[in-house]
Amino acid sequence: MIDTANAITGTGVVAGLGYAPALWVKPAPVVPQSCEAHIAEPERELEVARWKAAVTLVSERLSARAANASGAAAEVLEATAALASDRGLQRVVGKLIAAGSSAESATVAAIAQFIEKFEKLGGLMAERVTDLGDIRNRVISELLGLPEPGVPTPETPIILLADDLAPADTATLDPSLILGIATRLGGPTSHTAIIARQLGIPCIVAAAKITDIHDGDHLLLDGGVGTLTLGSDPVDAEARVVADAARRLAVQAWTGPGRTHDGVAVELLANVQDGAGARTAAGFPAQGVGLFRTELCFLSAQTEPSVDEQAAIYGEVLAAFPGQKVVFRTLDAGSDKPVPFVLHPDEENPALGVRGIRLGQGDPGLLERQLDAIALAAEQQGVRNAKVMAPMVATIDEARDFAAACRARALSPGIMVEVPSVALLAEAFLAEVDFMSIGTNDLTQYAMAADRMAPSLAALTDPWQPAVLHLIRSAASAGVSSQKPVGVCGEAAADPFLACVLIGLGLTSLSMAPNALAAVGLQLGSVSLEQCQHAAAAVLRCTTAREARSTAHELLS
Amino acid sequence: MTKQTVVVGSSVGLHARPAAMIAQAAGAYEEEILLILDGEEVDATSSLMIMTLGADCGASVTVESENADAVAEIAGLIARDLDA
């Protein structure tokens, strides 16, 4: 059970529990007023030299730490070192000092210029703001003769708190002393998240209210759910941490195949995008590929790959899972996945525009050639009745035409359930095709009328939303009555508790990112099919996403 | 003066890693190398300046320098997916 009484919530990015006193990262240096003085002209050359010495030292120290680190940590440190010695930064600082600024003031002003530009650009560029602020603080501390700012070296285990960790901070963290990390800012792709994942430190980002926590407060951090709890009973908290560590070990040791505790088989499949991804997935306990996203093979191409070129790419994925299920999804270009050669004129609302199977309206040959390529790859690999599904189907006519095109090539046709119309009329759609697969991310976005890319709408784009669960139920029931397989290949399948609910609803397969398979398989193996069905029925009676989630956790734990 | 306009191939645009790789390559030449997007010119040896262009994947960036080899090399880098 999750105790939410005293919980501060954020976005969990690395699952796991940690319990320890809080410790804040040391604050940035303050530039004293005396540094605002005008530097006289004869002194300016010396001032530039003083700045260069400081920045060189900062850059060298970062490089030295990069040499002692490995993997992503080393890369991040090296990148920060390179930014510190950037020529563009040198030029701006040089100009400011030439006009009379002190080295300290010039550093602050120059970095501020770049930060302002990056914030205006937004997106990925805005993520560099933390790096620039870190470089500024290090250079200023060096100029003022202060110790390096950043992460303190604790002597006993702590939970580290920060506004946002700079790359240089995260690179040398010791997982035996840092039992958890929580930041006020940042996102799932920030440096903090990347490094915490690499080090296996439970981590939460975007936890706005951590400012209420003081150094020394005992905290229970749950990186899976995304909560920080103050005032937990220490004995209880320690017991939970131990149980969680045991669970994580059990996940690592889980090798499949997927089945419930009472032995009912559940197909656990991998989502892949190319041959390399399929070969990686084959190293995980995946029983096949439930979603082969073919568009990623096209994204970097300037012109449409030929049938032979496509067949070679598809063959690689089939070869990675010989004799096992591989489900192709035809090109889902458009919306957030612009493929250069099928570019559509600017659409007002691309998520509701010409994407997926709708691309055939303008260029029917594109789908025909892709199906030819899949049939060719299947023939070359000795695969019969290869499974192919179409994305963004909304009408029975689309499903019928697609099925005919597949059957003409001895391919087994299926469709994605993303548009709510398909979930609502699932039985009629299943009469046309051999199988269906629910894309929960898009189904949720369309059912809740909420852009899945908008962070501020995260509460709406939650697959636990009761309306979404009812749509999934509709598709699952149609599968049961038609005796045709209906699976899920969205992020919902990777949530161990939701996965049990989905099986309880009557779905037959779950396809997800390969690294999520073991946690789902372990959870499924701990409950019976009857328990899953019971949880599914209970969840369908819930009226909020929060209630649905906690009901499932309670019934399936 | 040689000029060449290319389409940014990196899926993340001219962001951290692609920008750093271009700046490093540009730093090996004596001659000044400029990147131009929407009338804004920046020094190609500075990854910070390159990033201020905010050049997304698919944007058309012009490379300009006295050194034709430099233009060819930098244009080639911009067109590749450097983050892959």
Automatic annotation (TrEMBL), chain A:
<feature type="binding site">
    <location>
        <position position="418"/>
    </location>
    <ligand>
        <name>Mg(2+)</name>
    </ligand>
</feature>
<feature type="binding site">
    <location>
        <position position="293"/>
    </location>
    <ligand>
        <name>phosphoenolpyruvate</name>
    </ligand>
</feature>
<keyword id="KW-0762">Sugar transport</keyword>
<keyword id="KW-0460">Magnesium</keyword>
<feature type="binding site">
    <location>
        <position position="329"/>
    </location>
    <ligand>
        <name>phosphoenolpyruvate</name>
    </ligand>
</feature>
<dbReference type="InterPro" id="IPR006318">
    <property type="entry name" value="PTS_EI-like"/>
</dbReference>
<dbReference type="InterPro" id="IPR023151">
    <property type="entry name" value="PEP_util_CS"/>
</dbReference>
<dbReference type="GO" id="GO:0016301">
    <property type="term" value="F:kinase activity"/>
</dbReference>
<keyword id="KW-0418">Kinase</keyword>
<keyword id="KW-0813">Transport</keyword>
<dbReference type="InterPro" id="IPR040442">
    <property type="entry name" value="Pyrv_kinase-like_dom_sf"/>
</dbReference>
<feature type="binding site">
    <location>
        <position position="442"/>
    </location>
    <ligand>
        <name>Mg(2+)</name>
    </ligand>
</feature>
<dbReference type="InterPro" id="IPR008279">
    <property type="entry name" value="PEP-util_enz_mobile_dom"/>
</dbReference>
<keyword id="KW-0963">Cytoplasm</keyword>
<dbReference type="InterPro" id="IPR024692">
    <property type="entry name" value="PTS_EI"/>
</dbReference>
<dbReference type="Pfam" id="PF02896">
    <property type="entry name" value="PEP-utilizers_C"/>
</dbReference>
<keyword id="KW-0479">Metal-binding</keyword>
<dbReference type="InterPro" id="IPR050499">
    <property type="entry name" value="PEP-utilizing_PTS_enzyme"/>
</dbReference>
<feature type="domain" description="PEP-utilising enzyme C-terminal">
    <location>
        <begin position="257"/>
        <end position="522"/>
    </location>
</feature>
<feature type="domain" description="Phosphotransferase system enzyme I N-terminal">
    <location>
        <begin position="9"/>
        <end position="128"/>
    </location>
</feature>
<dbReference type="InterPro" id="IPR036618">
    <property type="entry name" value="PtsI_HPr-bd_sf"/>
</dbReference>
<dbReference type="GO" id="GO:0009401">
    <property type="term" value="P:phosphoenolpyruvate-dependent sugar phosphotransferase system"/>
</dbReference>
UniProtKB/TrEMBL annotation, chain B:
<dbReference type="InterPro" id="IPR050399">
    <property type="entry name" value="HPr"/>
</dbReference>
<dbReference type="GO" id="GO:0005737">
    <property type="term" value="C:cytoplasm"/>
</dbReference>
<keyword id="KW-0963">Cytoplasm</keyword>
<dbReference type="Pfam" id="PF00381">
    <property type="entry name" value="PTS-HPr"/>
</dbReference>
<dbReference type="InterPro" id="IPR000032">
    <property type="entry name" value="HPr-like"/>
</dbReference>
<keyword id="KW-0598">Phosphotransferase system</keyword>
<feature type="domain" description="HPr">
    <location>
        <begin position="1"/>
        <end position="84"/>
    </location>
</feature>
<dbReference type="InterPro" id="IPR001020">
    <property type="entry name" value="PTS_HPr_His_P_site"/>
</dbReference>
<dbReference type="GO" id="GO:0009401">
    <property type="term" value="P:phosphoenolpyruvate-dependent sugar phosphotransferase system"/>
</dbReference>
<comment type="function">
    <text>General (non sugar-specific) component of the phosphoenolpyruvate-dependent sugar phosphotransferase system (sugar PTS). This major carbohydrate active-transport system catalyzes the phosphorylation of incoming sugar substrates concomitantly with their translocation across the cell membrane. The phosphoryl group from phosphoenolpyruvate (PEP) is transferred to the phosphoryl carrier protein HPr by enzyme I. Phospho-HPr then transfers it to the PTS EIIA domain.</text>
</comment>
<dbReference type="InterPro" id="IPR035895">
    <property type="entry name" value="HPr-like_sf"/>
</dbReference>
<protein>
    <recommendedName>
        <fullName>Phosphocarrier protein HPr</fullName>
    </recommendedName>
</protein>
